[in-house]
Structures are given as structure tokens and as C-alpha cells.
Amino acid sequence: MLTVWAILIDGFIYASWLFLVAAGLTVIYGVMRILNMAHGSLYALGAYAAASALGWYYAQGGDQLWIAFAIIAVSAILIGAISGLIIERGLLRLMYGRDEILMLIITFAVLLILEDVMKLVWGTTPYFAWQPYAAMGRFNIDVLTVSQYDLLVMALSVVIGLGLWFWLERTNMGKILRSIIHDREVSEAMGVNVRRMFTITFMIGATLGAIAGGVTAPIISVVPGIGVEVIVLAFAVVVTGGLGSITGAAVGAVIVGLARATSIHTMPELELFIIYAVMATVLVFRPHGLFGLAAARKI
């Protein structure tokens, strides 16, 4: 029974982190039909920005936890929004209407460029911002100990998921975005500024990726290459749930998270294999993912 509790706790904690990482990726694809390979680098930018800002704050003698959280939020939001605006306005806008494979290659090139930019700016030395994680402490569930910071990440993933659902389903902008998803040409004919909506969407998706990195910074050592590792996991989640579906990203994250936790506690040597085995199994029976819909062919 103790193993079951450990699997559930670890699985849902990991799933909440996976959803934070994948949410921005699936928002961008859902609206813009761009499989953004650069999302991993946006995650890494958020992690580096948060770790640098937290390092400066604690070096100055700061010890207020709420200020540390504010620093994480502000630094991640700023670098995510600014980077998203530059990438969309400076590059992607010139490529709209091109083949999706070409857009994939372009965003992969952006990922490689940003990886080198981060090495130039932050170097190759690991950055540590452990203080907020340690300050929140841990509590016991029977003989298991759980970090309160991890529970905060879970709560944040729920808030972001509900916020995205409300934005897309209950706001005027969300209705406009859904009309663009359904038929871009008709939306333009009805007077919708599609390019402006694309800019907003990409900035939001980029910001979500940077927030995921900023929140993760106190848990890990921030080193070159973390963005490349993350983008592979994010793809596994969104493909399992269905590209472009927020609900699918949430369900996919839970499935992958629980599968990984089960593997770690029972067959640790299969940790990486099980993630992709779950994705492959889902795609055998649901080629468009659990919540993905086949696109209608236009004649």
C-alpha cells in the first residue's frame, strides 16, 4: 500500500510539472499550427532568468519567501514575453502559410541558436537557486516525506489549466481564437486581425514555457541542455493527449506521470522507455492522440 501511495504522489507531482511544460506548446500548436521546437529553449530561458535573479536577491541578504516567488514570476514572464515577441515578429511572421514541416525546422533552428546564446550569456557553469525549495520545507505522510514546494507546483498547474480553459471557452478573445482554429480564412474575411492574434498567442505560449522553467529552477541545477531534454518530454505529453488540446495535455501529463512513477518504484531501469511506450501505445489506437481530432480536408 505504501508503494501505491508513493506512486500516486510522485506521479501527480511529475504530471503537474509536465503539464506546465506542455501547456504553452499545445496552445501555440492549437491556434497557429506550429510545432514549436524552440519551446524547450524558452523553458531554459525562464529557468536561467529566475535562477540568476534569485541568486542576486539572496546574495544581497534577502530572505523573504514571497519576494522570491515574485522574482520568479516577474523574471520568467518578462523573458518569456519578450523572447516570444521577438521570435514571432522577427522570424515566424515571415513564414506564415508555409508547410508545417518547414516551420518545425525553423523553430528547431531557433532552439539551436538560443542554446548557444544562453551559453554566451550565462556560461556553462551550473546555476543553483535552491533557497525557495528548502525554505518551504517538507511534511510527512506516514513514512513518506513530500516537499511543500512540489505541492505549490501542483496548485500552479491547476490554476494555469483552469485559466487557459476559461480564456479559451469563456472570453471574447477565446472565441475569436477558436474561430481562427476552425477556419482561418473565414475569420480574416470577418475582420479578425489574425496576425495580431498569432502574436498574442505566441507570446502567451512562450511565457507559459518560461514560467515552467522559472518554477523548476529551485528544484534542479540550471545547466546548458535542459531545454533539449524538456522538449522531448513535452512532445510525448502533447502527442499522447492530442496536439492542440489543453484537456489532452492535462490527461496526457497525468498518464505519463503515473506511468513514469510506476516504473521508478517497480522497474527503475525502464523509466525512459515507459514514457515513449505509453505514447506509442496511445497512437496505435488513437493516431491523433486521446483528444486530438482529425483535420478536415479543404477542397
Could you characterize what this model shows?
This is Amino acid/amide ABC transporter membrane protein 1, HAAT family. The model has no long low-confidence stretch (mean pLDDT 90). The chain starts with a helix and ends in a 14-residue tail after the last helix. It has one domain: ABC transporter involved in vitamin B12 uptake, BtuC (Orthogonal Bundle), CATH 1.10.3470. It is mainly α and 299 residues long. It has 12 helices and 4 strands, in the order ααααβαββααααβααα.
Please give the CATH architecture: Orthogonal Bundle
The strands making up the biggest β-sheet line up spatially as 1-4
Beta strands, count: 4
Look at the helices and sheets and give the structural class. Answer: mainly alpha
**Radius of gyration, CA atoms, in whole angstroms:** 19 Å
* N-to-C CA distance: 57 Å
Largest sheet: 2 strands, antiparallel
Shape type: globular
| Regions with little confidence, pLDDT below 50 for 5+ residues | none
Strand fraction: under 5%
**CATH class, please?**
Mainly Alpha
Quote the average pLDDT: 90
Name the helix and strand elements from N-terminus to C-terminus, one letter apiece.
HHHHEHEEHHHHEHHH
Number of helices: 12
DSSP helix fraction = over 70%
Keywords: Amino-acid transport, Cell membrane, Membrane, Transmembrane, Transmembrane helix, Transport
Subcellular location: Cell inner membrane
Membrane topology: Multi-pass membrane protein
Transmembrane segments: 12-35, 42-59, 65-88, 100-122, 151-168, 200-224, 230-258, 270-296
